[in-house]
Write a structure and sequence with these properties.
It is built from five helices and no strands. It is an all-alpha fold and 90 residues long. It has a domain of 59 residues: 434 Repressor (Amino-terminal Domain). The chain is globular. The termini are far apart.
Length: 90
C-alpha cells in the first residue's frame, strides 16, 4: 500500500483556477466581503480560497459559479487531462 498522495494547492493548474476565481469576482464588481455574503461565508473564508490556503471542493465550485454567473467549466477550462486524453465533444 502506497503513501496517500497529498493534493497541492500550488500546482500551476490550481494557481490558475484561483486567479480565475478572483477574476470572475472582480468582473462581477464584487468585493470579497460581497461574495462571501452571497455564499453565506465569512470574508476570511473567501480570502483563504483565493489565496490557496484552503481547497475549493466541487460543491463550493458550483456555488461560486452560480453566484458569479459563470459556467463551472469556465473556472477549470485550462486544466489538461492526464495522458493527453482529449476532452469528449458532443
Amino acid at each position: 500500500m502506497g503513501v496517500p498522495r497529498r493534493l497541492s494547492l500550488h500546482t500551476a493548474e490550481y494557481v490558475a483556477f484561483r486567479r480565475r476565481l478572483a477574476e470572475a469576482r472582480h468582473e462581477a464588481g464584487l468585493t470579497q466581503r460581497d461574495l462571501a455574503k452571497l455564499l453565506r461565508k465569512s470574508q476570511a473564508w473567501l480570502y483563504k480560497c483565493e489565496a490557496g490556503e484552503r481547497r475549493v471542493d466541487a460543491v463550493e465550485l458550483a456555488k461560486f459559479a452560480k453566484a458569479l454567473k459563470r459556467p463551472i467549466d469556465w473556472f477549470v477550462s485550462h486544466v489538461k487531462l492526464p495522458g493527453g486524453v482529449p476532452e469528449k465533444s458532443e
